[in-house]
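Sample 1 of the test manifest.
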Amino acid sequence: MGQPRIQEPWGSSPGCQRCITGSRLGWFGHKEPRIWGTLHGTDSSTDLPTRGLSVPAGQRKCPASGEAQGLAETRPRMETLCGEQRTLLGDKEYVGFATLPNQLHRKSVKKGFDFTLMVAGESGLGKSTLIDSLFLTDLYKDRTLLDAQARIPQTLVIERRAVELEEGGVRVKLTVVDTPGFGDAVDNADCWGSIVDYIDQQFEQFFRDESGLNRKNITDGRVHCCLYFLSPFGHGLRPLDVAFLRAVQHKVNIVPVIGRADALTPREVGAMKEKIRQELEENAISIYQFPDCDSDEDEEFKAQDAELKRSIPFAVVGSNDIVRETKEKAFRGRTYPWGAVEVENPAHCDFLKLRTMLVRTHMHDLKEVTQEIHYENYRAQCIQSLSRVGARDRASRMKLSRQSATELPLLPLETEKLIREKDEELRRMQEMLQKMQAQMQQSQGEQSDAL
Amino acid sequence: MEGELVQPAPEETPRDANPANVGLELFGYVGIEAVLDQMRIKTMKTGFEFNLMVVGQSGLGKSTMVNTLFKSKVSRKPTGPGYEERIPKTVQLQSITHVIEEKGVKMKLTVTDTPGFGDQINNENCWDPIIKYINEQYEKYLREEILISRKRKIPDTRVHSCVYFVPPTGHWLRPLDLEFMRRLSKIVNMVPVIAKADTLTLEERAEFKKRVRGLGRESVYPQEDFDDNSDDRILNNKIRDKIPFAVVGADKEHQVNGKRILGRKTKWGIIEVENPAHCEFPLLRDLLIRSHLQDLKDITHNVHYESYRMQRLNESNRLALSPINGLLGKDEVESDL
């Protein structure tokens, strides 16, 4: 039984010298050598659970649904380490739950992962090309571009494209949600409405599934990350950008990206990033924050992390065309008469940083934040509004019942509404009946008076 | 003998029978061509005016392009730190006038910029202030022209050419672009350009142009209807094949092969603005300045201004019911217009 070998087709990721491979599976791919390093120095194996299985940043707990912590290459290491451990401590002091991460890993590799990415931004900023380059797919090969005439009457559509990627035995079901038509019309007021509705719809679907009876096969369609493309031609954020970001900031992880960055000289890139960061702060827009690394990480990792944070928003160039400059030197890029832009050259653009961040180190964190922060926000709002209505109903009927909010989500939302409506109708009819009775009595009384 | 035409000598038969095309043979040097020199000296003394308008979303390099065109800091574009470029809430029109001189020829150049165009969320009718401005300039000229005692040289503030900057999306023209070009090509010479074209590869450029060219070919400058003769047509066809020009603007110089060249320096190469292999800026410059400047002014005066004038005088004719078409007295003009 061989360990899963993860292919690294493009050369190892920069700065990641300690990982044997660039693991796709979460930030553990980076961190775990460190963990083993400290374990080596200690003489109790109890250090492992706290370091190994907990998420360091902000002390967020691992979700119970247990997406894998990627420890692709741990098995050979661990075995040797266990061997060493055993010699250090003797068999009696070795319990063996050091293999827990491995078990998780095996299970989740079998299950596969899913990740939903949304791309938004005006047309022509290179969104589709970037997706194809990021995941080395050709999702957008056969698309037809609508001309301006055809686009005028159209409202924003939401398109989903799903692809199954496999690398080194690990399967990822990637769903890309595209928003063609965003910001293209003359009047773009509220063109983001359908995007916000879509995100909410996915949350609602998950909410219902979660509260349903059969929870075995929930498909998670929630949007884990939104790549928002900013135009390199403007001066910072435009009014449309600000409006859209404000509308979605609390529903999805926003990663702002400057598309078509080969239009900018290095100095202009720096100025633009500075301007955008400033304007994001001014408008109080909360984008996805990278978790801070542990204070005991080594300097190199910290420096890398700090550099990654400084480069937001990423200035990217996408391309899937291979350029052959000389016989040996072939790279993915775009050729111009004055030179060729290399997509994977960190000096030319931030494509590598974006890919590292999105796929190699923070994919899992994005999913976690979606689950724990955005989804929980939505759920809390939902339950609150339901319980408010429910409390009003109950108060009007003057019944005593359990005030448990957990009672409500058990009923699907629509039947709840129907029940409420029927109650209202019943009440109204009762009131009318009473009125009519009172009137009849009155008129009878008058009649008897008159007689 | 005064009124008679000198017939050509019998041995020289004219090519065609049409008397209008019969050229007179000169058998000595008359000096007609000296009129060219006279004209040149005169224009050098008076100088001439050129009014250019640049329209496009913010950040497309309009001010830089104007600076590159006229090789001087024509547009106010401070690049110092701490300069905030706020997008105005409505479209504003800012005109700057400079007098440029080259080899004794003076040109009074007015550049009208339109910040705020197409930058809002709702861009409905953002072209109205621009149309209003252009019509106002025609109006001013019309009033001067109608006066009984006119000025010797009417100051010409009419917009001679409108350069419209299309963002290099590589896909299609946006609805906003289409609407704007349609409306404005009726009242002013419209020259669309693809801005910041250094982000499109050569294939993408050709694709984009192909897609864009199908729309509104008859309305962009140089208009097909106004070609005077076949030479013009050939020249203009060459230009029309390349419209819209893919341009890159730069106002910094760099060293390339020992020469100082205007360009943009990136990590993967230097984009030379004046190199026709890199971008089509030389074509734009030639069109606007070197070959078609006078033509732009002529068409503005003979075509666009005339149609405006006709429209206005018809309107006021209906009001004034004047029997003499077009000849209104000064008082009537003031009361009606």
